[in-house]
């Protein structure tokens, strides 16, 4: 199981790849940051997923299950499962965006303490 320090080291490697030259006036979106440090971020996610607390995520399998459930439903109910899956994906994305921006804000607040 990785320690918090090990996870922060992986996150620092990803953060080091972000283009934040000069005085940043605009925080890049999660997707922009993810594009800039894709490999490092993927390593961080894989490390977290290897932790015994988190099971691996298989997006393709999730889509197959949704399709199987939808196929078993009557025609007038099929869109409900699709809507539920889409809503869940939006919720996960919202949580990622919130966690990213909260982490960014915490990092900015901690910065003066590290430099001193």
Account of the 3D structure:
This protein is mainly alpha-helical and 116 residues long. 73% of the residues lie in helices and 0% in strands.
Q: From the helix content, strand content and strand pairing, which structural class follows?
A: mainly alpha
Q: Note the gap between the termini.
A: 32 Å
Radius of gyration: 19 Å
What is the count of helical runs?
A: 5
- Quaternary organisation of the protein chains: single chain
SSE string? HHHHH
What are the main properties of this structure?
116 residues; mainly alpha; 5 helices; 0% strand
Give a brief rundown of this model:
The protein has 116 residues and is mainly α.
């Amino acid at each position: 199981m990785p320690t918090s320090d090990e996870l922060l080291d992986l996150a620092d490697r990803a953060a080091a790849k972000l283009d934040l030259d000069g005085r940043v006036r605009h925080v890049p979106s999660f997707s922009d940051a993810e594009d800039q440090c894709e490999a490092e971020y993927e390593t961080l996610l894989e490390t977290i997923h290897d932790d015994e607390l988190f099971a691996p995520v298989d997006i393709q399998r999730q889509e197959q299950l949704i399709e199987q459930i939808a196929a078993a439903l009557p025609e007038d109910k099929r869109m409900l499962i699709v809507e539920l899956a889409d809503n869940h994906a939006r919720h996960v994305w919202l949580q990622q965006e919130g966690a990213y921006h909260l982490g960014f804000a915490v990092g900015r607040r901690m910065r003066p303490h590290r430099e001193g």
